[in-house]
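TASK: fixed-backbone design
INPUT:
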């Protein structure tokens, strides 16, 4: 579906999309109809049931069309180009790896799990990892909570001699991550687990020197106690999936459990927090 109107109205609707029970597969804002803007949203199901929740003001123009039968997630990812984030060069299976020795190349084929490196939250986490590496931080036990396609865990495996656990609530994501881990030859370094948040016996209190959690603001706040408790003293936590407007609330949820904010990175409308226990 496409919604056309003033940018401020569309940004309000975009904020609601994050909280829908069945969030869309994708959404993007375009400025190709200025002075109006266009918010294009792709739902897996008919969007009709979601319209009430979105609370679309009457003055906006709404156009709903079914998409032809195709796997649009894979289709759209197929045409993505390679991407750099710090020392990491992420490319699809249809592209060449970088020939520059300083680059760490990660191959992530188009797939159904989140995390091709193109989203600002993912590249923001990779940039934070790059900064930690530059600062000489050498964590030995790492957790990627909500691993999606496995990209953050793979990036750690390629740069650090660490034991890595990568979890996801979604079994399909773990299947995709497993395939990506093999493609990148790091299967011996990463243990993949299906887990909801911190609910798994392998996720022990004080068990990790570095934890990534790129999820969304609300679950990050809900899980602040559990996620904070996983960190060893001095351990580093990288949080993403929150909008800039949510950074303060997420930060204070974690400072409430004794963590200290080291860095706040802005990428587009997103914020990435690096914190220390
Ligand atoms: C935004 S994606 C991030 C993927 C990848 N880590 C990245 O940075 O590109 C969030 C992932 O977290 C997973 N997730 C959401 N809630 C979760 C929970 N409570 N426990 C574990 N994983 C969760 C989703 O299934 C999804 O794969």
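OUTPUT:
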């Amino acid at each position: 579906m496409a919604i056309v109107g003033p940018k401020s109205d569309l940004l309000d609707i975009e904020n609601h999309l994050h909280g829908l029970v069945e969030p869309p597969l994708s959404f993007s804002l375009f400025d190709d109809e200025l002075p109006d803007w266009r918010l294009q949203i792709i739902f897996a199901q008919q969007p009709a049931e979601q319209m009430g929740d979105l609370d679309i003001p009457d003055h906006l123009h709404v156009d709903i069309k079914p998409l032809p039968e195709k796997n649009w997630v894979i289709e759209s990812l197929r045409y993505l180009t390679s991407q750099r984030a710090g020392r990491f060069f992420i490319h699809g299976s249809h592209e060449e790896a970088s020939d520059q020795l300083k680059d760490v190349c990660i191959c992530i084929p188009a797939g159904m799990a989140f995390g091709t490196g193109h989203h600002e939250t993912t590249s923001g986490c990779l940039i934070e990892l790059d900064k930690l590496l530059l600062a000489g931080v050498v964590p030995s036990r790492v957790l990627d909570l909500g691993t999606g396609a496995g990209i953050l865990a793979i990036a750690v495996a390629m740069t650090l001699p660490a034991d890595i656990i990568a979890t996801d609530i979604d079994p399909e994501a773990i299947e995709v991550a497993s395939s990506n881990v093999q493609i990148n030859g790091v299967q011996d370094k990463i243990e993949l687990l299906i887990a909801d948040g911190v609910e798994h016996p392998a996720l022990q209190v004080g068990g990790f020197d570095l934890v990534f959690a790129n999820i969304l603001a609300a679950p990050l706040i809900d899980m602040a106690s559990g996620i904070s408790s996983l960190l060893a003293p001095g351990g580093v936590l990288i949080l993403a999936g929150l909008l800039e407007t949510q950074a303060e609330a997420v930060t204070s949820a974690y400072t409430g459990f004794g963590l200290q904010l080291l860095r706040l990175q802005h990428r587009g409308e997103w914020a990435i927090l690096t914190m220390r226990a």
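COMMENT: Residues 113-115, 121-122, 125, 144-148, 151-152, 167-170, 173, 195-197, 214-215, 219, 241 surround S-adenosylmethionine (CB under 6 Å).
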